[in-house]
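COURSE: Structural Biology Practicum
ASSIGNMENT: Worksheet 4, Part C
STUDENT ID: 0417
INSTRUCTIONS: Below are two proteins. For each, the amino acid sequence is given first, followed by its structure token string. Answer the questions at the end about the second protein only.

PROTEIN I
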Amino acid sequence: MDRAKDTRIKYAGLAGGMTGCITRCICQPLDVLKIRLQLQVEPISTHSQISKYRSITQTVACIYKEEGLFALWKGHNPAQVLSLVYGVAQFSFYERFNVVLRDTAIFEGHDRARNFTCGAFSGSFAALIIMPLDVIRTRLVSQDPGKGYRNTFQAVNLIYRIEGIRGLYRGLGPAILQIAPLTGGQFMFYNLFGTAIKRFEHLPENAVLPPTELFLCGGFAGLCTKLLVYPLDLVKKRLQIQGFANNRQTYGQHFVANHMLQCLYEVGRYEGVRGLYKGLSPSLLKAGFTSAFYFAIYDQLLTMFNKGFK
């Protein structure tokens, strides 16, 4: 292994963890909006008279009026830990998988397939680790003011005591099905767009693109992949609030489903195909900005660490 690859792997976990924390702090309000809209059974329409949330701007105004500005950062603590752990696991394992598979005969001359495979494996592994934090984050964001859990530690204790270990892993099925193509696609599209820019600008293959171009590559990579797997993200969120109805009395009708296939069927039957894409607008904004910040900050931090720790 050459020195450049070795230093990239060495600092991948540190850079990935810092990237996750910075990005989460910036994008958390979009995550709150996405989750609130995903969990609403009633139509998301400005013409609806029965819906609590009817558009992005109206949802922001409603949350601010009823719960205050900091409600847009609800669930931030477990989400921040989630991002830190996920960032460390995802990027460190991605770099290691990439080194191993780069010398595998089946992937010779197939860089995009290798990037997709590495991203899928690293994302799935990271998702398995952080799943309990994702469940807690979803419930903290979606609970009534003054009800539910006071903090992350109480949430872990109550969920485990009342629902068992299964409660901490609600929605794991769609999460894994979603994260493999999502993460794999992000790395594949990111490297694809980056390679295209380098060829267009006649840059060497190992050149580091400027932050603006890294930001654009990451943003487009996030948008492309999110569109493909979005219904699975909605299903995951719906499953994560099962058994939590008593703490969600002010958000309208409570959705009930026992497993992923039933959830998909019930949403499609009663809310239509559009129901599977509720919260898509803030989700796409979040996906674009998150991926853009992730890759731009990650590559810049790696460059800084490699220069600073030589």
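PROTEIN II
(use this one for the questions)
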Amino acid sequence: MRIPPMKAIIAFESVARTKSVNRAAEELGLTPSAVSHQISNLEAAIGQPLFFRQGRGLVLTPVGEQYLRDVTGALADLGRATERASSRSDVEILRVHSSPSFGLMWLLPRLAAFQQDHSDIRLNVSCSYEEVSFTSGFYDIDVRYGHAHWRDVQIKTLRNERIAPLAAPAYLERHPVSSPADLLAHRLIRSETPLVQWQQWFARFGVEHMHASFDFAFDRSYMSLETAALGLGVALESSLLASVMIAQGRLVPVFGEDRALEVAGHHIVLPPQNADLPRVSRFLAWVDQQLQQA
């Protein structure tokens, strides 16, 4: 059987990922009718429908789901082959996508250490709160935050992450804290990001009626942590993200580890076919080493 035109396969992948002909058309720089035409040609070549309509969107048929899995690996292989052909033979390129807070607060301060240990790997990092698709073969791994509910990928959860009240040493000198209930009279910083929020934390440690107001509220962890480091209040945040600030003495835990709640918040996600790539396995081993040193 003849291989369908690559432009039809790429159009199919884009529509399958975005679940929209219009969004795929914007992504590919084509008209919606041109994308629809490519999908029709592909379905004619295969001899079976790949999508059916559900409301205003498109849903893959069972044949379409299987075809997407098959072409995903092929497109990834083509991407890697092109990258190898166009790169220096002595340099590997590791493409990492990350949530902004992890990229800025955990990964960026450690880039020099990675470069020193792995000078033959060029690290390309992109940050956003979008969950990237691996179908194009562009990204090797994605660092995601949240509950690990993703399908068809390998998930490596970063260990020893805790949510705890954190503050600048100078703030605690001015405003001593001896118990969780004391914090109700303090300046609290709210972040929308952590898997454990203030109300849950207070309830966990016996403060059932939280009536505290928030002096600051942010939708990014790096903003709440920086605000706490400036001495403007107490943040309930990830010890993993704050590890560099804690090592520098800019932040300290308000209480001991018995008042910290362990979470599985950050995860390295990758497609199964990437697990055996040397650059990926070396990066994962390096991450483990860094976490052990923390």
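ANSWER KEY EXCERPT:
Q1: The chain has a mean pLDDT of 89.
Q2: The longest helix spans residues 62-86.
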